[in-house]
Amino acid sequence: MSASTKGTVLVSGASIAGPALAYWLHRFGFEVTVVERAAALRGGGYPIDIRGTAIEVVDRMGLLPQVRAAHVDVRRITYLDADGSPLGSLRPEAITGGTEGRDVEVPRGDLADALYGAVGDDVGFRFDDSILALHDDGAGVDVTFRNGDRCRFDLVVGADGLHSNTRSLVFGPEEQFHHYLGRCFAGFTMPNDLGLAHEGVTWNTPGRGAVLYAPREDGVLHAFLNFARPEPPFDAFRTPEAQRDLVASVFDGAGWEVPRMVAAMRTADDLFFDVVSQIRMSAWSRGRVALVGDAAYAPSFLSGQGSSVALVGAYVLAGELASTADHAAAFAAYEHRMREFVRMNQGLAAAGGAFVAPRTAEELALRNQALRDPAGLPGDDGRTANSALALPAYAHAG
């Protein structure tokens, strides 16, 4: 490794896991470069939760006051019957397993800005670029970038999300690790014409769901249309228009505000369509390349823990690399510490899916019964999983 530092590390991805990992690696003495496919830091996006152990990670980064200032304070989620009549309302914590007054919910872009602000002056960022090829010769990794540059690094870490390019280059096609959870979703923004503020409204029929989410008092609603499908709709990924057609056909004839949501989806310039899936791998490293966050163990948005698990994983991976000069031992220790935490948080998706997006009439009836009987809510499982890992105290971590 480099004589002037603990080593050189290339991190692929500048969303949540990547900048968090870069922060800790730099703090522990590594020379870090982050490569990001997008032309600039990506702002916007729907609100995300930071819970349990991840709160401690953010606190150790010194970012907790900034993150708390961005808290959106959603106070209730109201559930509707097929005809739009209310079934009941709950605090979000009752569903997610969060702890009121401790955990936070922030717009994804605000968290990304905070992480970048903490590390942007200390590490090199290569925007509008990506890894084209990797060659690990055992002593280092030669990287060819899409812009034609070639560089050598001691280690490479893929923090590039569910559809990780790094994972594909090193471990093979995504299909072998992709575990489809039987649902698809379309997310977009639309005008807030309903006067909603600090709340969400959820409509369901078996296999179909619609959510309008107003995290703040402004003119924007985050809209989500989710639906069950036995197999992933691969044909719909060809073009945005195919995605819009598929979603519109699934929700044809739906009630409540769904027709207006579909019309807004048709013209939205921020449509994001994907399948609801997890990444499950038997190993998160190979040679001098490792994975972190969704690239290694995406729990899906149904768990509510994607960002939190990514933040914890970034801290643990950096800490283990700082604790030994043997990268293989560090990668093994990272997996050993994180594996059960990941397993528990991926397990939240089953209960979360049945509650947020019931696929059958039976699941919907059970969900509606749980609205009347708080003992049936999934929150307790969430609280246990969110804090299942005691955060290690690595040297220089604060």
Describe what this molecule looks like in 3D.
The chain is α/β, with parallel strands linked by helices and 398 residues long. Helices cover 36% and strands 26% of the residues. It is built from 13 helices and 18 strands. It has a seven-stranded mixed beta sheet, with helices on both faces. A six-stranded mixed beta sheet has the order 7-2-1-11-18-17, with helices on both faces. Strand 8 and strand 9 form a beta hairpin. Helix 1 runs parallel beside helix 10. The chain is globular, with a radius of gyration of 21 Å. The two termini are 25 Å apart.
Q: Calculate Rg over CA atoms.
A: 21 Å
Helical content (DSSP H or I, runs of 4+): 25-40%
Mean residue pLDDT: 91
What strand line-up does the widest sheet have?
Answer: 5-4-13-14-15-12-16
The oligomerization state is single chain
Tally of contiguous helical segments: 13
Give the terminus-to-terminus CA distance: 25 Å
Question: What are the low-pLDDT stretches, counting only 5+ consecutive residues below 50?
Answer: none
Biggest sheet features: 7 strands, mixed
